[in-house]
Specification:
Rossmann fold, alpha/beta, 2 domains, seven-stranded mixed beta sheet, globular
Length: about 400
């Protein structure tokens, strides 16, 4: 019972920090929403960034009048910690179901999302996936599950097609590839997809190496990289491991023609660029990215930075997932779970900062979702592909 009381008291405390306005001298009716992320453990940085994005969205929604179709009801977040494990995520869903949430947003990592969506499905609890890229999440026929962003199959296809365009334009200097990935569902699935896509474009995969998560030493992997001497290195790992891998490459003077990431945990991270500018310089990434021409996106970026936060994909993806849910609540005109699921399924949400157009879900996947290609350029991150969002021309190969 203590755990239960602590959970409720923590969530009430978290909600109170948003300073909900009073209506008619009394607190407005609230809509309880579960917010689950790995805020402790190996994925804590990314989970904390996700939580910040959710809370910023809730603050904006509530300040703008709450859910108007529900009489201005404010969103009350119940915060859960998945502790960087699928089991931890499932346990939080169980608690939140008992606490009476009408929907859940989360839970960052693919393996955790696979577990949380499955548990939520037992209770017909709507679950908006903020980041989790494994396509298995939306391929199990779960009617409660909706992913706003693209999956890793889409990202791998876009990344390899664009790599080939860049390589051909440069005179085909790159012929060999080495893939380094973390061992969980995200990294392994991404590596498997790349190993199928790359040979079709004429690239030879020299080696695929996996590492545990967390890993605190990449010396042996980088020594192996020196032996193989690939033209292109493709990392697929979470933030800490990605940063350490690239820094180890720099320390050992391993300089491929390109570091070309697919959903790289640090590749398009302002934190990484600020802390390790030389190691980050020139890295290309195919990843979640906001529309750089959207004024709301730029305003949100400035606001996050004013709070001392980096405007990372975790933050803006969860921010957008929460605004998608709020739009569905408006259209459902109800906190009934079935009504919310129906509203999400019919969603045509367009008031977001992502380069997706209006939302259209098919079997729980937003079909308009797409990654953008970015490159670290002069201490900043710039979009290079597609043309309509391009900020700078790509530099490829970075090292001849």
């Amino acid at each position: 019972m203590n755990t239960r009381r602590e959970f409720i008291s923590q969530t009430v405390l978290a909600a109170s920090t948003l300073a909900f306005p009073l209506v008619g001298g009394a607190q407005a009716k609230t809509v309880k929403v579960g917010v689950i992320h790995p805020v402790t453990g190996a994925l804590a940085y990314s989970g904390q960034q996700c939580r910040e994005g959710a809370l910023m969205a809730i603050e904006d929604i509530n300040l703008a009048g709450g859910i108007k179709s529900l009489g201005g009801a404010k969103i009350e977040p119940l915060l859960g910690d998945a502790q960087s494990t699928p089991q931890g995520g499932s346990a939080e869903v169980e608690k939140m179901n008992e606490a009476g949430v009408c929907a859940v947003v989360g839970a960052f990592a693919s393996a955790i999302c696979l577990a949380t969506t499955q548990t939520a499905a037992k209770y017909n609890l709507p679950h908006v996936v903020d980041v989790g890229v494994a396509d298995q999440i939306v391929e199990r026929g779960l009617k409660n599950t909706f992913r706003f962003g693209p999956g890793y199959k889409k990202c791998a296809e876009v990344a390899v097609a664009n790599l080939h365009v860049l390589n051909v334009a440069a005179g085909k200097p790159a012929k060999t590839v080495m893939i380094i990935h973390e061992e969980s569902l995200f990294g392994t699935g991404t590596a498997n997809l790349l190993s199928k896509e790359l040979p079709g474009y004429g690239y030879e995969i020299k080696e695929i190496l996996k590492h545990p998560n967390p890993s605190r030493d990449f010396n042996n992997i980088v020594l192996r990289m020196k032996q193989i001497n690939p033209d292109i290195v493709i990392p697929a790992n979470y933030y800490n491991e990605y940063a350490l891998l690239v820094r180890t490459m720099q320390q050992q003077h391993v300089v491929p023609k390109a570091i070309y990431s697919v959903l790289g945990g640090a590749a398009s991270s302002y934190k990484f660029v600020k802390e390790y500018p030389e190691a980050a310089n020139g890295i290309i990434d195919c990843n979640h990215w906001f529309n750089p021409k959207d004024k709301k996106a730029q305003a949100l970026k400035k606001r996050a930075e004013a709070k001392g936060l980096f405007f990372s994909y975790e933050l803006f993806m969860t921010y957008t997932a929460m605004t998608l849910l709020a739009d569905a609540l408006e259209n459902a005109k109800s906190t009934d779970r079935a009504a919310i699921i129906d509203a999400l399924g019919k969603s045509q949400f367009s008031g977001h900062i992502m380069p997706y157009g209006a939302t259209q879900f098919v079997n729980g996947q937003n079909t308009g979702a797409q990654p953008l290609m970015t490159q670290v350029f002069k201490g900043d991150i710039k979009v290079i592909v597609p043309r309509e969002y391009r900020e700078v021309e790509a530099v490829f190969p970075l090292h001849a």
